[in-house]
Amino acid sequence: MKSFLGYERADGSVGIRNYLAVIPSVACANGVVNQIANEVEGAIPITHGYGCGAGPSDLVITSNTLSGIGRNPNVGAVLVIGLGCEVVNVDSLANSIAESGKPVEHLLIQEYGGSQKTMKKGIEIAKKMSGRPSNQARVEVPFDKLVIGLECGGSDAFSGVTANPCVGAVSDWLVERGCTVILSETTEMIGAEHILERRAINEEVRQRIAQIVTRMEQATRDVLGPLAGMVIAPGNIDGGISTIAEKSLGCIRKGGTSPITEVLEYAQAPTKKGLVIMDTPGYDVESVSALSAGGAQLILFTTGRGTPAGSPISPTIKIASNSETYHKMKDDIDINAGTIIDGDKSIAEVRDEIVQFIERVIEGKKTKAELNKQGVFGILKTATSF
User: Fold this and answer.
1) Which of 24, 102, 121, 167 could form a disulfide with 254 if both were Cys (CB 3.0 to 4.6 A apart)?
2) Given this structure, which CATH class describes domain 3-134?
3) What are the structural domain ranges in the chain?
4) SS3 for 196-247, per residue?
């Protein structure tokens, strides 16, 4: 595949979906946002728990993440709903998104006369705005316009030998074709950072890899003390993983073997092609949200134990590491990499299966997470609420 049909945006990016995103600047506006999105075809609510009551660093993260979601190529237009007294400024958020060239409108509940009046006006605006994305035709664009995020959740002892290596092979395939691939979850690089550092394209990138992993490792020690080496979920342990280092060695295999060209902060958009790293936590929801905010049009998500969660705006392809989980959760998982353990397929064959599925998703096929409306959104929080 040298090209695909996508939705071209004013900033040069290309979407594989064409949503109207309804974004609250603060959690207090979630109810209005949900009501508006429920009444407008093609509208996606991006509800969250923040926007106020936090320190400067968390408010910056919240603003950047919401702005990044609005800028994502899969979003064709944006309606921002604010309360009016929150710290995340609605005008600034709307203007930041509008810099991408897409249509943006905003309303304040306190100024417009309360929730019901804002909801009715919001529905009116959203219906007019949704016409722009729905009337836009797909055009042929180069394949290298793709940005794909990599994630794993509910890992087990098979993840590092089936699903993750398959995604790593897909990652290399994508990079060879000029695409951008984002490896996330800094928590799950602890103990394996030396392997990633060797793949840095220069000393600056090597130092950045060391910096983000050291920072995350220190954070786990500060919070968990002597239990820092066990910063994995109970389900991971039940699945046969014993330490974070063991999990990390499997996790980083999703990044294949390509050189690492850049290290990004949480929710930051890549500026380089090839394999890049984004500094996110291992918590799936916050990590996937950051990948979407960074511009990923599509996400490859491996799982051993099974998880239905995806992104509200970035189609999320679920890949099981074992056949038992695949068959138990067939309504939630798209690809079974457990066929490798079963002896039915090779890593190369599952890689090709994933590539073919990616092509169908780009063309409009819905992933299981999309069909089940399992788009879950969360924003990283680093400090206390006030």
Assistant:
1) 167
2) alpha beta
3) 3-134, 146-371
4) HHCCECCHHHHHHHHHHHHHHHHHHHHHHHHHHHHCCCHHHHHCCCCCHHHH
